[in-house]
């Protein structure tokens, strides 16, 4: 079966979530028995296609759509392109990363083709009586749904925090074809204008250390020590939903299901009870240390280490100790 | 302008999610219900837009009769009209849900005061299907953008911005359009007392759309396996700080 996988590119090449999607899609394509197996679809100049890297992830063929055909991100045009390629190669499945763009493009493809789509999948395998059995995330990964997905092609987005990217044992460099999609003007009506970020600071999503603050911080004036600690540790401050819905801190600092998913080495959660909506955002932290007055708080049972105490006492003492250490 | 806002009644989960013994649902015996978070912001955005530009906000939901509670919550926040699309005791998938919403939009258009804008949440907190808005847009032949964190309406145009890893991306769409938003686009207000009283008395329009089977069929729900060990308690209060510093050092944080 041939499988199409949308590969998103950033300045450094395929995004991490796209490499995860490729790994997932390769599992569906199975061993390429002569025909095209895993076909990567990329939007950008042909000379920027990282063919060798795609080969290491099992891609057998790359289809690239150059800026002359589709300049930048246009969700419906990307979906229309995938629709055309899917019928050209008789794709059994189309896969994208579970990102804003991946979800959006596959939702358009689902609407264009009338096919169902399974979002944030963890695994999939052909079912005995046709279709696929899938495991997918609900509640931002706090719950797993086992389901059956029909559809030709079957449409999947892949959870960005679950399937690890994995290379193949015997990579071969795929052929790169320039594809000319058949588009109507309406497909290009909605297009992204890209603008740079407001600040060049460490981002919450990629920070190595996150110092979290919740209701226990007490109010908008209580965050200065957390900011100081974060900067001593080379990290940033993250907050729980109650903090942003009270307006104590901006929503851009929220860690959780409706905020940012973080992946730091250390998450130091201070005065945060650990509601599941918050845990959905910090479950991928390598180490969680909780500072909480309540030893029975959910965050304490989910942390690796805990300090039982008031953050207003513990954090200044920690800052003093770190400064003394130099 | 006429704005329709789509909301969903979802369980208000606190410390953990429990699945019912038959594996088909989230156990809600111990939880309340609320409007899914992104959609709460969609309601606020719609109300703010009509406060600035005039017009009317209709809040729509597909759900059981109890979802009238969420419609009244939205009315209390400033929505003017409420429509309940009765789910008939069925679990609806994204294709059927989109069809029911599109049918309501067509019904509204037939009255001569069709929606200029349909606002939704980017994804429902419970099912997380990430597609209803796009499918509604295709059914109506309208443009669509998703994941929006900032919205401006100027005449018949919307400028909608969302985050992207490199910064932001902005879309210009012609109304009528479907726009799905994320929490953070605004800070939802608390309902006023007069708002609550008005909501309590308000009439709710009801329709019964036809359920249809879908190609993504739930077999069972389960909570991911928890391989987590009990936390190691480093100590109490400031006395724990030396142990905490030693730990940070051991984890390689203090480099």
How would you sum up this structure, described in words?
The complex is a heterodimer of chains A (326) and B (255). With 326 residues, chain A is an alpha/beta fold. Chain A folds into two domains: 186 residues, Rossmann fold; 122 residues, Rossmann fold (3-Layer(aba) Sandwich), CATH 3.40.50. In chain A, strand 7 and strand 8 form a beta hairpin. In chain A, helix 3 packs across helix 4. The longest helix of chain A has 15 residues. Chain B has a seven-stranded parallel beta sheet with strand order 7-11-6-1-4-5-12, with helices on both faces. In chain B, strands 8-9-10 form a three-stranded antiparallel beta sheet, with no helix packed on it. In chain B, strands 2-3 form a two-stranded antiparallel ribbon. Chain B has one domain: 3-Layer(aba) Sandwich (Rossmann fold), CATH 3.40.50. The relative contact order of chain B is 0.18. With 255 residues, chain B is an alpha/beta fold. In chain B, helix 2 crosses helix 5 and helix 3 crosses helix 4. Chains A and B meet through helix 4, strand 7, strand 8, strand 9 and strand 12 of A and helix 3, helix 4, strand 7, strand 9 and strand 10 of B.
Instruction: Flag low-confidence runs of chain B.
Output: none
The biggest beta sheet of chain B is recorded as: 7 strands, parallel
Helix/strand-derived category of chain B reads alpha/beta
Which fold name corresponds to the CATH topology of the largest domain in chain A? Rossmann fold
Tally of distinct domains of chain A: 2
- At the first level of CATH, what is the class of the largest domain in chain A? Alpha Beta
Largest interface: A-B, 93 and 83 residues
Uncertain runs of chain A with pLDDT below 50, 5 residues or more? none
Q: Compute the separation of the termini of chain A in Å.
A: 60 Å
Q: How helix-rich are the residues of chain A, as a percent range?
A: 25-40%
Number of helices of chain A: 9
Percent range for β-strand residues of chain A: 25-35%
Shape of chain B: globular
Strand order of the largest sheet of chain A: 9-8-7-10-6-1-4-5-11
Topology, number of strands of chain B: 14
Amount of helix of chain B = 25-40%
Provide the CATH superfamily of chain B: HUPs
């Amino acid at each position: 079966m041939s499988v199409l996988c949308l590969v998103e590119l950033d300045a450094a090449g395929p995004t991490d979530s796209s490499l995860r999607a490729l790994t997932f899609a390769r599992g569906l394509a199975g061993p390429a028995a002569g025909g095209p197996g895993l076909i990567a679809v990329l939007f950008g100049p042909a000379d920027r296609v990282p063919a060798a890297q795609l080969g290491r992830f099992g891609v057998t063929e790359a289809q690239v759509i150059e800026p002359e055909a589709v300049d930048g991100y246009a969700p419906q045009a990307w979906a229309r392109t995938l629709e055309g390629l899917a019928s050209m190669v008789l794709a059994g499945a189309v896969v994208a990363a579970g990102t804003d763009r991946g979800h959006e493009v596959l939702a358009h493809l689902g609407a264009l083709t009338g096919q169902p789509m399974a979002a944030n999948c963890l695994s999939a395998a052909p079912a005995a009586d046709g279709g696929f059995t899938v495991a997918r995330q609900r509640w931002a990964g706090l719950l797993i749904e086992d389901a059956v997905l029909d559809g030709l092609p079957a449409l999947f987005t892949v959870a960005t925090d679950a399937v690890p990217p994995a290379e193949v044992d015997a990579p071969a460099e795929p052929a790169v074809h320039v594809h000319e999609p058949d588009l109507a003007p309406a497909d290009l009506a909605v297009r992204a204008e890209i603008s740079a970020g407001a600040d060049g600071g460490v981002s919450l999503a990629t920070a190595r250390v996150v110092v979290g603050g919740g209701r226990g911080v007490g109010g908008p004036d209580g965050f200065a020590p957390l900011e100081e600690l974060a900067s001593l540790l080379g990290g940033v401050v993250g907050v729980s939903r109650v903090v942003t819905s009270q307006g104590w801190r901006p929503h851009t600092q929220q860690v959780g299901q409706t905020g940012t998913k973080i992946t730091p080495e250390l998450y130091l959660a201070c005065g945060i009870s650990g509601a599941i909506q918050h845990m959905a955002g910090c479950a991928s932290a390598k180490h969680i240390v909780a500072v909480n007055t309540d030893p029975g708080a959910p965050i304490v049972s989910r942390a690796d280490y805990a300090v039982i105490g008031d953050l207003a006492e513990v954090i200044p003492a920690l800052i003093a100790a770190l400064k003394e250490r130099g | 302008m006429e704005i329709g806002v789509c909301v969903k009644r979802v369980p208000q989960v606190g410390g953990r999610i429990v699945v019912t013994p038959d594996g088909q649902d989230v156990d809600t015996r111990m939880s309340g219900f609320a409007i899914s978070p992104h959609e709460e912001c969609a309601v606020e955005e719609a109300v703010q837009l009509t406060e600035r530009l005039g017009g009317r906000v209709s809040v729509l939901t597909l759900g059981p009769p109890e979802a009238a509670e969420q419609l009244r919550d939205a009315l209390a926040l400033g929505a003017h009209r409420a429509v309940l699309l009765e789910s008939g005791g069925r679990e609806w998938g994204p294709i059927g849900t989109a069809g029911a919403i599109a049918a309501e939009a067509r019904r509204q258009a037939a009255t001569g005061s069709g929606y200029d804008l349909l606002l939704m949440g980017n994804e429902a907190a419970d099912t997380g299907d990430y597609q209803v808005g796009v499918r509604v847009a295709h059914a109506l032949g309208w443009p669509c953008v998703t994941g929006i964190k900032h919205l401006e309406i100027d005449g018949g145009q919307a400028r909608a911005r969302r985050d992207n890893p490199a910064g932001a991306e902005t879309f210009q769409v012609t109304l009528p359009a479907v726009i799905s938003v994320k929490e953070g686009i605004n800070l939802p207000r608390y309902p006023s007392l007069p708002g609550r009283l008005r909501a309590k008395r308000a009439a709710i329009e009801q329709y019964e759309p036809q359920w249809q089977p879908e190609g993504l069929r739930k077999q069972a729900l389960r909570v991911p396996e928890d391989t987590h060990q009990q936390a190691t308690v480093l100590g109490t209060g400031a006395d724990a700080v030396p142990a905490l510093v030693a730990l940070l050092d051991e984890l390689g944080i203090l480099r």
